Amino acid sequence: MPKTVPEDKARQGHWGWHALRILIAGLLLAFIAWGAVEVYGELIKSQTTGQSVPQAPATGQKPAQGG
Predict the structure, then answer these.
(1) pLDDT, averaged in runs of 10, over the chain (67 residues)
(2) Structure pTM?
């Protein structure tokens, strides 16, 4: 025999503002972490490419024209 439950007792809970604030805070933290990794990646890339490029010594002469 099925149990009869009154309508006011058989409701689902609602999400509420607390859960929404937690979800938004998690999203903001993810964006902050993503931004930090992007900045760090650009910093690493500029350090490795900037040091490995040799510079020609300045002699004061004009470069030779080909042709």
Answers:
(1) 80 80 97 96 82 62 64
(2) 0.50
